[in-house]
């Protein structure tokens, strides 16, 4: 394994130290691994908190700032943070108007966030939970349900904008739910990432094969398939997402996302074919984002997230955002 | 017929901590195959913290019940992932069901039975879903069936049952937890959580052999 | 080789097609591979043009937009574009106030840009050239000189801001030269990238070794060294840059940059140690940028660029920028 | 004693195009070792375009001088990288120095000598800097020395000299071009540009053997 790290055990802490050094506009509690806005919670604003295992950067710590999250909480690599830390993030975000927990749908994340919510409620903080479960690669019945992946970015961006403009808890939750329920994702990998503590790729993928339907924790996918031209892979990915995307007559926000080790050139190649594919099917892309945002360590792979967006959601997508990893407007 | 006192629970926790640390790589390898490759690391870190909490509780002369509650809390606040809240809740719930300075086989069966119920409620998994429940439930059943056997012997039977339950997960298709994402591809792999559960029951059995006079 | 491409020969064109699809604010001439602002050249504004071989994305095509470049020109992978294409980009950027060519110092880039400048002058377009030569890993005497790498971003950002505020050609050139001359870079790689047409990594790097002083074209480095903790690598990189950085009493802009396949987590780890290292030496970091901006295909590696910046340069760095890859203010 | 006419130059260009294409992988491998791995691809693409320009020029009945100017222009606008402007300028400058419908050995030596001068001016490289100059300069010297030999024979001597110059680059430390970044690590590798230059001179010699009656 070759990584720019000091030791597998210190990776998360050392990266947070770097984040703190680079971003004085963030308050980084290195002991609790909580990243919040240095400006503190704005009285009367609904607080937005997310978090989860590390290894998905810039998600979520890179999305803390005006227009997006109030606080994020980083767990060990691929392990949900513990309730006490999520509680600390919740406290940092609480400003009297309640806090939304944006939780990617994994057993561990659900359990730890639920326990934290319970503790926060005991302290008098109103907490609402919005679950992100967008990955169509996994079954959604009688199991742990769909995984939360790229849609987290869209949920955090739009709900963050709604909170920023002063909406109340119910209204922020409504936007977050709308974005979450309107989004679907699918990912393929060319090579698995390496969890530092294990030192070896999460799975071995022989030459000429892609892993189709991978998760963002090195979970192997639905199937192995031959490596095909980007055009065909993009079509297959779009097919998978569209098969399960709500069929409303709305344009989409399209996120073509690198899983950590995929160069931008390749992401744009994929985006071009996704755009062609959607055009063929008469689906308009109202907004797009191409880049490396929701990652899985150094996985070479790409994910597509589509979110059906009405004008209200598009307006929130367009609203100003000032975070380390996402800034516009 | 020995009973479980705080000293014995402390030895159990140390034994479980040692077992988890010794099997860290194996647990992580199992989790790499059908999960995300952190179960060994999570549990090593968590049980190390739980051992410290256990020493503190023992030093304070805490009874087994509150002792397990403290240890469960330490697991919850140090493991992360799915296993932390699940194991932590099991121990906390079991602890709440224990009264007094010692517990015999029947009392332990009741306490761990309450823990199992909490585990099933929290995680929603039943036997056959390829989770730690597959090792935990038969272990509790064995303890219950051994209600009038000496504790050390009952614990051995529970550990045997847990290990059999652990092995029974291999041919299963996962319906809960991260392995469920794999669908049919989860078949043929032993569940990491069931494996760690079997380690914890074996640690109980072995620690009782040394600590509980018959 | 595993990449999201259709064929090695179409990689550049397919990526440009995706860029065009994703960014309607850009005018992408796919035949000439020229990317310009769709709004056209603003009359009376000095035009800024850069370009070079492809494989360094988002440099330069991702830096076209208000506050930065007017046009960029993409060559084949790692090969400078030809003069006719650079001429086309120059025409797209020309609005009566002259055009600045920002050229990374490579023999091929120099020759092709110089020929294009000659042709543009024959058409009556005033062209000034600013050379970026920041890479301290290579000798600077009697050779091709230092390579141009990460400093291109800083030059394009600051000169772009100066042009945007209406400065004349001489003033824009002065800023570009100041930024270029005040910047130094150094890069190390853990694994080489793969040029699509060759299908194999540019160099093989055995386990446990890093290539120190690599270029952004798969050029092997100064030396191979054992892989060390990020702290030590960061210190060595900072040492290399500082040894050759102008010794003025000014703070620096620090760019910690991924070479294409390096996760953000690792970049922040490195940034943290770079910041410590500079603090020890009493050098203030006035601004920083941590991310993947000047790449070398899918090279796993990191580069550090430091630029001594006076208040004027910092003001230009802070000025608004709206491009696909860099946006703030 | 044969002279070089437009038909012969066309055959030369086709031969050079074929040679570069046949050696693309080798040129790229040399450039991967001490450069950026694109010299073969660059030249294959460039000579393919140059061949088309050459056919157009030949079809238009252009004399060798303007013919080489057109071909050089095609190289400049299709190769990219360092090699495009360098090769293109050589041919353009050589073309400017050629007058009339044919050229003998001495005229070709003068023309390519002018091309070499332009190459040295443009790139700033001298013999010994480990560039295409190391193959080009001895080839021009050989042509000059063979001023009164038949063209085909003179071209063979030039190709031999170019190849010797090419091989002489191996022990050199590069002082120009991308290989100079490697410093001492460039030693022991043959220069890709010198290699392609040798191919182009060998293509001249071989094409003349077939096209120029002696
Ligand atoms: N819903 C559940 N109910 C019971 N046990 C579960 C459940 N989900 C997961 N597990 C157990 O947790 C184990 C995985 O733990 P761990 O790897 O630490 O957490 P994570 O999956 O969050 O990485 C699984 O092997 C399984 O036995
Ligand atoms: N300054 C120079 N003068 C003469 N020849 C040069 C010079 N720089 C490079 N070359 C030649 O160009 C060759 C490399 O060409 P190529 O790989 O196509 O361009 P690039 O280096 O831009 O990738 C070198 O092997 C060398 O022979
Ligand atoms: Mg986990
Ligand atoms: Mg796990
Ligand atoms: Mg090149
Ligand atoms: Mg080259």
Topology:
The complex is a heterotetramer, with two copies of chain A (329 residues) and two copies of chain B (214 residues).
Chain A: H1 11-22, E1 26-29, E2 34-37, E3 47-54, E4 71-77, H2 83-93, E5 99-104, H3 107-122, E6 127-132, H4 151-164, H5 169-181, E7 183-191, E8 209-212, E9 223-226, H6 230-244, E10 252-258, H7 264-280, E11 285-291, E12 300-308, H8 311-318, E13 321-322, E14 327-328
Parallel strand pairs in A: 3-4, 3-5, 5-6, 10-11
Antiparallel strand pairs in A: 1-2, 2-4, 7-8, 7-12, 8-9, 10-12, 13-14
Chain B: H1 6-22, H2 24-34, H3 39-59, H4 64-76, H5 83-97, H6 105-123, H7 133-145, H8 151-168, H9 192-211
The complex binds adenosine-5'-diphosphate (2 copies) and magnesium ion (4 copies).
GO molecular function (chains A, C): kinase activity
Keywords (chains A, C): Kinase, Transferase
Pfam family, one (chains A, C): Dak1
Task: Name the descriptors.
heterotetramer, A: 329 residues, alpha/beta, Rossmann fold, Hypothetical Protein Tm841, Chain: A,domain 3, 2 domains, 24% strand, B: 214 residues, mainly alpha, Serine Threonine Protein Phosphatase 5, Tetratricopeptide repeat, 69% helix, binds adenosine-5'-diphosphate, binds magnesium ion, Dihydroxyacetone_Kinase (chains B, D), kinase (chains B, D)
Quick structural gist:
Chains A, C: Residues 7-328 form the DhaK domain. The complex is a heterotetramer, with 2 copies of chain A (329 residues) and 2 copies of chain B (214 residues). Helix content of chain A is 32%, strand content 24%.
How would you portray this structure in words?
The complex is a heterotetramer, with 2 copies of chain A (329 residues) and 2 copies of chain B (214 residues). In chain A, helix 4 runs antiparallel to helix 5. Chain A has 329 residues and is α/β, with parallel strands linked by helices. The radius of gyration of chain A is 19 Å and the shape is globular. Chain A is built from 8 helices and 14 strands. Chain A folds into 2 domains: 175 residues, Dihydroxyacetone kinase, domain 1 (Rossmann fold, 3-Layer(aba) Sandwich), CATH 3.40.50.10440; 134 residues, Dihydroxyacetone kinase, domain 2 (Hypothetical Protein Tm841, Chain: A,domain 3), CATH 3.30.1180.20. With 214 residues, chain B is mainly α. Chain B has one domain: Serine Threonine Protein Phosphatase 5, Tetratricopeptide repeat, CATH 1.25.40.340. In chain B, helix 1 packs antiparallel against helix 3. At the A-B interface, strand 4 and helix 3 of A face helix 3 and helix 5 of B. The complex binds adenosine-5'-diphosphate (2 copies) and magnesium ion (4 copies).
